[in-house]
Design a protein that fits this description.
The complex is a heterotrimer of chains A (392), B (351) and C (332). With 392 residues, chain A is mainly α. Helix content of chain A is 59%, strand content 11%. The chains are: A mainly alpha (392), B alpha/beta (351), C mainly alpha (332).
């Protein structure tokens, strides 16, 4: 009580003595289950109260599901091209047809013509022949997870020569909508894999540093200081320069992930070490030691529970940094290389401002990146609030 | 209103409430008292009884929101005439001129009551600059050194330029007292000034405050949860419980003849220096929730002499038991429930 | 104070050593030394180079020596002659390439930081003193978005919005008509016009962080006893706010420079690439794509070193502002 109240103004403290609130209120009895809840249950309950964070968490999960089932969600393949449909704007979807009224979604077939004055391509819809959009429609065959052979897609026109391009097409006439979901596979997974590597390295090195002390601690600490105090992007760029251009997509993928993780672990290691040292000094850890608990028991039963929630928060907030790192590197041509697709490589097409002025839909991948990063931040924020046992 | 021109401050039926998310806290709920010029009033009660809020209301520095003075009056008898500070805007020039010049305050936490970024001297001269215009820089500095010397700070001409973190808690509290005296206030409020200090330093600080009160001829409002300290420091004592006045009497009466069951319980809970060693008693039960509204006596749930049907149904008025002692308890209702209780005139207690 | 600065400089030494070491590794990392690569390129363009010539070049540049010796030689050149090595892509010494661009990168980064503070600190003060007001929620939300949104994507989007709505191309540092013109007031104003967007974008996340930190700190400080003391003394509310709690709340913001500045420099490099501002960003990108490693490694080293020094300066500034650090012995 005394340690806490010294920071608070006396005035605010006085009318609300803490012990009397808890003991004097009748609700205290009803809230009895709070006293017996485990740390993780408490965190979960508090997180659930955070509406925005819960909504963000659900959307994040949906986003990851679409990436896993990209073959199914995307109406077309990753390299499927329409020779006569390059730089096509997003296909408008209609729900209302004159004389018929409100119908299911449908599109009009378009044909590409050259504008005689500007010599630019224009796409002219044929309003007489509506094509309905069908769900669970047969399309290009693919192997789900590389095993299950099927040709069912979430939606489509069912007609090979009259495609629906919800987000338009790129310079080669490939469907941007489909490519964004294939790109999500790389962009979203690299966040998880990268943070996983950082996390393992961070836990091992941070734990080692906090546990061993001495020279080992000193070396690891200085390395962490170094990694956290320099601008990371130039180093990322320089490191990616050494990747051989002839590497396969998989090789590049892991190399990039590794480069991004080289710096990411430092932040996590610092959290781990700092928390370990801090928790070791907490009264309850001292009390456990005084009561004769073994070192292992203190770590697993007393330190880790006070720890995991903070780790989860740190992990959640470091995922977007890795996603952004990959996007940035691929965007400037140093990360994933075509034909591999990620949100960063898709954005390479948007580097030219004049092209973007004519084909605004090329910026749609940027929206996906921003939304993903925001979602992770919302989730992380909610988790952070929930993980602090002394916040209300 | 009294015509007694020795009265410095008259507080009548002061109500200060805190409107919090969890509910309304009636921190001060109808408190009346007087302080006469040069005299001292001790205020005692457990934490949460509203004693600090009472003092802060006097200076209009209750944080708002959530706090608000919702009723009563606080009349300050200044040279130019009486002023009801509750009618003033807390941010007005008039109110700010009263602060520190007329009423100043020493706080509980010497560690945090100075800003760590400015020297002690800077923060003391700031008050002088504000309230005594026309004093030259050199004079301000000399006056500050003199004040520091007066409160027993060694090498004042050097320590005037140190930062708060370079002083010990006791030294900081002395500097705080010097700052409180810097504008010759008529009333000094000491809000548990020794709670955070060691016992040995506590005695020194208490002696210092008492000596300076005499020297400066100030009135003193001494707030504490320590009954022994309060009775040593004060001519008159007010016992508070959950925002209400339980008993008011001279220090002598509180010491020798406590009337309210709460005051009696407080005495039993502190160790006596003389007499047999016996187990200390605690006050039974728990402090009720601060959000609870009491129809009757707030001490009812913990009182040994409670009278069900009476004490929990109606608020006991203040009964005048002796010319200087009033108590808010139905036990002292001589005319039983039938007669209207003689509502005590609080000013009578001050004489 | 001096002891404090000396202590800080001592902790800097291992970091500076690691920076130079990593930069050197970066230079050595691509497969094959650059003489081999150079010769291969010459061969590709049809020029015959005999083995003797290759040997001569290898010896000349000391590439036949072991790694440790080459590192020491490289460092010697930098420390004694300011010689960072040779850029074969530009065919000139690296330091001559960097002499203009590095200051530009650093001044844009620092200007962004200062602008972000100028925007965020007043907003933070308003938000804290008007907690839970409508504007507080609006600012907190904007700060959150700023914190989370990647600057280079915002640059991409805003450049398009500005270009397509006004026809003004915010790319580069100067409009075309001023490119080769000598410095004049018109050229300077044109440059400012081009700089506003990158400065705001690079400072975006710093603005978000600062709003958050300032608001939270000030809310804490406002509850402190010394604020009540100052109010009880009869100080005017605004003067009190600025002298006591705001001054206290600003100090932690200065200490955030340590982790904001590296991000700002990264952001500057990337945003410069997107917006085509001729700072170290586009230079580094080209160097990396061409495997011009002395240039790339030198940029990494110089930017890292300057960032670390910037952090040191912010620590010194903090000590000047906070007597508890200046006189040591901080008590919680």
């Amino acid at each position: 009580m005394s340690a806490q109240s010294t920071n608070n103004p006396q005035v605010l403290n006085e009318p609300v003595p803490e012990d009397s609130v808890a003991l004097g209120q009748p609700e205290a009895v009803l809230n009895e289950r709070f006293y017996y809840a485990s740390q993780s249950e408490l965190v979960w309950w508090r997180f659930k109260k955070h509406k925005l964070a819960v909504a963000a968490a659900i959307l994040t999960i949906i986003l990851y599901l679409t990436a896993i089932f990209a073959n199914f969600v995307a109406p077309y393949g990753i390299i499927t091209r329409w020779g006569m449909r390059q730089q096509e704007p997003p296909t408008p979807v209609y729900f209302y047809r004159e004389g018929v009224g409100i119908t299911g979604p449908f599109i009009y077939p378009v044909t590409r013509k050259a504008d005689p004055k500007t010599f630019e391509w224009v796409f002219v819809p044929d309003k007489t022949k509506p094509i309905p959009i069908q769900f669970f429609v047969k399309g290009e065959p693919y192997k789900l997870f590389g095993i299950i052979e099927t040709d069912i897609h979430l939606f489509g026109t069912g007609l090979g020569n009259e495609p629906v391009h919800l987000f338009g097409t790129d310079n080669l006439g490939r469907d941007l909508f489909s490519r964004i979901f294939f790109g999500a596979q790389v962009s979203l997974s690299i966040g998880l894999v990268g943070v996983l590597i950082s996390f393992l390295a961070g836990i091992i090195l941070g734990g080692l540093s906090g546990y061993m002390g001495g020279v080992v601690d000193e070396i690891i600490q200085r390395t962490i200081d170094f990694l956290l105090s320099i601008p990371t992007l130039p180093l990322w760029m320089a490191l990616s320069a050494s990747l051989p251009r002839n590497w396969s997509v998989i090789q590049t993928y892991f190399a990039i992930t590794l480069i991004l993780s080289i710096i990411g672990w430092a932040g996590l290691a610092r959290v781990v070490r700092g928390k370990l040292l801090q928790l070791r000094e907490e009264d309850y850890a001292m009390a456990a030691q005084a009561a004769g608990a073994s070192k292992w028991r203190i770590i697993t039963r007393h330190l880790l529970p006070g720890f995991t929630s903070h780790l989860i928060v740190s992990i959640t907030v470091s995922i977007p940094a890795v996603i952004l790192g990959e996007t940035a590197l691929s965007f400037i041509g140093l990360g994933m290389q075509p034909p591999a697709v990620s949100w960063g490589t898709l954005l390479q097409d948007a580097q030219n401002i004049v092209a973007v002025a004519q084909q605004q839909w090329l910026l749609i991948p940027a929206a996906f990146v921003i939304i993903t990063v925001l979602l992770f931040n919302f989730v992380g924020d909610g988790l952070r609030d929930a993980a602090d046992p002394y916040s209300r | 209103m009294t015509n007694d021109n020795n009265v410095l401050i008259e507080v009548r039926d002061l109500k200060t409430y805190f409107y919090l998310y969890e509910g309304t806290v009636r921190a001060v709920d109808g408190v009346s008292y007087d302080i006469r010029k040069g005299k001292s009033l001790g205020v005692i009660g457990e934490s949460g009884c509203g004693k600090s809020v009472t003092a802060q209301s006097t200076m209009r520095i209750v944080p708002s929101p959530p706090g608000k003075e919702v009723g009563g009056e606080i009349v300050l008898h200044l040279e130019k005439g009486p002023v009801d500070v509750l009618k003033l805007n807390p941010n007005s020039d008039e109110m700010r001129a009263i602060r520190w010049k007329e009423i100043s305050m020493i706080f509980q936490e010497p560690m945090t009551s100075f800003s760590p970024l400015f020297t002690i001297g800077n923060q003391i001269t700031e008050a002088i600059k504000l309230h005594l215009p026309g004093v030259s820089k050199k004079e301000m500095r000399e006056r500050t050194i003199e004040l520091l010397d007066k409160v027993g700070i060694p090498q004042p001409s050097r320590l005037i330029d140190v930062y708060p973190h370079q002083l010990s808690g006791g030294m900081r509290q002395r500097a705080m007292i010097a700052m409180a005296l810097s504008c010759n206030p008529k009333l000094l409020i000491a809000d548990e000034p020794t709670t955070a200090l060691d016992v040995t330093i506590e005695a020194q600080i208490l002696e210092l405050i008492r000596g300076l009160q005499e020297e400066f001829g100030m009135a003193l409002m001494y707030i504490s949860h320590d009954l022994a300290v309060v009775s040593e420091m004060s001519d008159e004592i007010m016992v508070m419980y959950l925002g209400r006045v339980m008993e008011k009497a001279t220090a002598n009466e509180i010491f020798n003849n406590p009337l309210h069951p709460y005051t009696q319980a407080l005495w039993r809970s502190i160790p006596a220096i003389e007499g047999d060693l016996k187990r200390l008693e605690t006050i039974k039960g728990m402090l009720p929730s601060p959000y609870q509204v009491h129809k009757g006596c707030p001490f009812y749930s913990r009182c040994e002499h409670r009278m069900p049907g009476l004490c929990d149904e109606a608020r006991p008025p203040l009964y005048q038991v002796s010319p200087t002692q009033t108590v808010s308890c139905f036990l002292y209702d001589k005319s039983a429930k039938a007669a209207t209780p003689a509502v005590a005139r609080p000013e009578a207690a001050a004489s | 104070m001096l002891a404090y600065i000396a202590r800080r400089i001592v902790t800097l030494i291992p970091i500076l050593f690691l920076i130079s070491l990593v930069s050197f590794i970066v230079i050595q990392l691509p497969p094959g030394d650059w003489v081999t690569r150079q010769i291969n390129q010459l061969k590709l363009s049809g020029i015959q180079v005999d083995e003797g010539e290759a040997m001569r070049l290898t010896k000349l540049y000391g590439l036949d020596k072991p790694g440790g010796e080459r590192y020491i030689n490289w460092m010697k050149g930098i420390l004694l002659d300011g010689n960072f090595g040779w850029s074969f892509q530009w065919n000139m010494p690296v330091n001559r390439l960097l002499v203009e661009r590095v200051p530009l990168t650093m001044s844009i980064s620092i200007a962004s930081l200062i602008i972000s503070w100028l925007i965020a600190i007043p907003i933070g003060i308003y938000s804290a003193t008007h907690q839970y007001s409508v504007l507080d929620y609006v600012f907190t939300f904007i700060g959150f978005i700023g914190l989370a949104t990647p600057g280079f994507l915002v640059a991409l989007i805003l450049a398009w919005v500005i270009f397509s709505s006004t026809g003004f191309s915010p790319l580069g540092l100067n409009s075309n008509q001023f490119l080769d013109a000598p410095m004049s007031i018109a050229k300077f104003l044109d440059m400012l016009k081009h700089l506003i967007l990158p400065l705001l974008i690079i400072g975006l996340s710093s603005t978000g962080v600062t709003i958050r930190v300032m608001r939270a700190n000030l809310l804490d400080e406002l509850k402190k006893q010394y604020v009540i003391t100052a109010r009880a003394k009869g100080l005017r509310e605004l003067g009190l706010l600025l002298k006591y709690p705001v001054r206290m709340a600003i100090n932690p913001i200065i200490s955030t420079v340590g982790w904001i500045l590296p991000g700002l420099v990264s952001g500057e490099v990337l945003v410069s690439i997107v917006l085509g501002i001729q700072t170290t960003g586009p230079l580094l990108l080209r160097a990396v794509l061409e495997q011009d490693m002395y240039l790339a490694g030198s940029i990494v080293m110089i930017l890292s070193t300057l960032t670390v020094i910037g952090t040191l300066l912010s620590d010194i500034l903090l000590a000047v502002m906070d007597p508890r650090i200046r006189y040591g012995g901080v008590s919680k």
